[in-house]
């Protein structure tokens, strides 16, 4: 499994050509608000803004550096002050800490106390039985979670972390080389590939396409530099960065165009930058530092298990003292009464619960691993089943996180293949670094034969002043054509005509206004629009420049979008059928978000923006999160707040995201879901990591979670009701019978054999109707179920007492072995057979059959129950053979018990329902 995960992850990294990679980072947390809501401290925001606006020479001087970089002495000095360029991360748990975490459940702690009391009272058999249950449950959970965490960690430590750094190899004592001519400086500096952790403030680094930015930096120069910041801001489109800060620059540090931040990556172009801050002092480090000590809030599963556990513990704390007092008072042997009460405590406690829970969760983890899903925390399996709201980021989760051509239209808005043909020739023949838009155009491989009909003549490269580029081609007849592609406004400036169905028309004011309206309508749909124009060239002309981009004929538009994943729409539809509503939480703009949501089937009429959320108090937001399904332009704090509010409203919330800005919400949610292409901070915050692009595994995970929960609940309901009935019978018998109705050892053996039969529960079938709606723990329902069905078994226990006393004469201390043998068999067989009655709301054996492991274990328990008093081991357990007439009575009791239980079950379902 681990090799499969590794191979998939390495292939992904190779496909992206990442130059550097960051090791595991800690989870993001909601931070103090600043006036611009950057999620960082006010002081850090001011420092970043000061660095962005400072003159270059003044900034370099303040960092004790120059464009030629640092020498070794300066590096050592800077490192002494700033430390290594590493991010404070959650400390990995030691094996001891992990083992304690797996052990510290309420029932494990209770059983440990009972085992200790048993050992102190000399009952070594009970000590061994109880200790084995605890050890098995704890060990299984420790092994499964450790295996999953090891696989997840292996994904995050496979790529070397390096950056291209300018370092000086010599240092003039007086620093005169800083003013030396370039010829001299080239001998004093070298570009080195250094580990990212060795960077210090003042280092000069080179950035190129494919690199991830290794620290927070100020650009000194940039050429066609585009950065993907979706992991930080949620915006799907790359952002252009410049060395010069324009007038009216944004105050938000993340939006300053001459700053680049650790964790973002270079899509295209090149740049030279000076490192401002590293490690924990960086933007990302500040976010990470706030959460390194943060504890994950308890999930719905953890809180539910604890509540149910305490319900059962409270019953035990009431019943056990009563058993002790009644038996001690009526029998006069307080030592024997104490041992019997201790055995009752063990019998009343569903000691297999930790193991059943762990085994069912581990089975779910194995199932999901076959679907290429890493389950980091076993509790996440059940949370999948309980989830009724899935909040998801857009970019990279619902979408492919890549640009594609959505439409190719003429100037009137009709589909035009000619526009796509011209754009294909333009993108194919340009020699500059191809942008994501060019890559999207060239993905239309069906247009590739077109290039054979043309030969390239010249090109006019792209620049960000005129925002367009042109290529000149000629056909086989030697007729030349200039093809220009660029921003709509810039193409309109150089166009004087427009292509129409019957030829060309002059581009007058009316047509210009209509064309602009068409482009704006596309923008309103969340599409990025590029215009294409052409014109024929003069014969014999071979050299072209910007001046030749004039008198163009506008052909039409290309509209680009980050497309949704093919599996997104069917996955969300499947979730909706199973009672899970989806809400989109994104940092991208409303128009793009609305378009994607429409494509995946989410109602996009009501969109709530981050700015609106800022103005809401918790009471108003609690109402809004129920009504709206799309939230756009959100900060990390907004996402975390929405998830927290949904949880406060009583929902079990899942969150799926892949960016730095998603980590706080991932940690706050009951179940955090990420993907293998996510940044490390998101993968570490998640409970589950999807390795497959298909989102259909979400619905499969939901169903597996509900199947897991249903089987856990079966065990709790069956065991709690049966054990309560037995103890209730013990109380009645103890008050009237002059001897113990069952010896402590017999009670422990009966309990052990029954628990052995329940080990098959994780593999049982689950009725389809139990998978249609979210399921969660309901302690009140468990208590009611126990009080309702427990006394039913007591009816037949008391019947057995009467028959053994009256019919078979087991009514003296000398005949107590026969009495105890009779109840031992009835108690064990009724406990085992009732499993089939309570495991389903249907008619057992006819409408719903248990899985073969459950049926097999039932037969084994019946055989053991009959053999123990009838076989050679009977004297060892102080049992004795039963007369033949007893077995006639046994069959009648079992049939009557099953029949009455079925009747009462139907009434219970009509009154209270069935979970």
End-to-end Cα distance? 34 Å
* Beta-strand residue percentage: 15-25%
Strand order of the largest sheet: 8-23-22-21-9-18-20-19
Provide mean pLDDT, rounded: 81
Query: Could you estimate the helical fraction of the residues in percent?
Result: 40-55%
Classify the secondary structure makeup into a structural class: alpha/beta
Taking the sheet with the most strands, its summary is:
8 strands, mixed
* Count of helical stretches: 31
Record field, number of beta strands: 23
CA-atom Rg in angstroms: 36 Å
What is the overall shape? Answer: elongated
Poorly predicted ranges (pLDDT <50, ≥5 residues)?
Answer: 1-39, 155-160, 171-187, 291-295
Main location: membrane
Catalytic activity: Mg(2+)(out) + ATP + H2O = Mg(2+)(in) + ADP + phosphate + H(+)
Membrane topology: Multi-pass membrane protein
Enzyme class: translocase
Explain what you see.
By secondary structure, the protein is α/β, with parallel strands linked by helices. The chain is 49% helix and 15% strand. It is built from 31 helices and 23 strands. The strands form three sheets. The chain has an eight-stranded mixed β-sheet with strand order 8-23-22-21-9-18-20-19, sandwiched between helices. Helix 13 (353-369) packs antiparallel against helix 26 and helix 26 packs parallel to helix 28. This is Magnesium-transporting ATPase, P-type 1. The chain crosses the membrane at residues 99-120, 126-143, 308-326, 338-362, 785-805, 817-838, 850-870, 882-900. Residues 50-123 form the Cation-transporting P-type ATPase N-terminal domain.
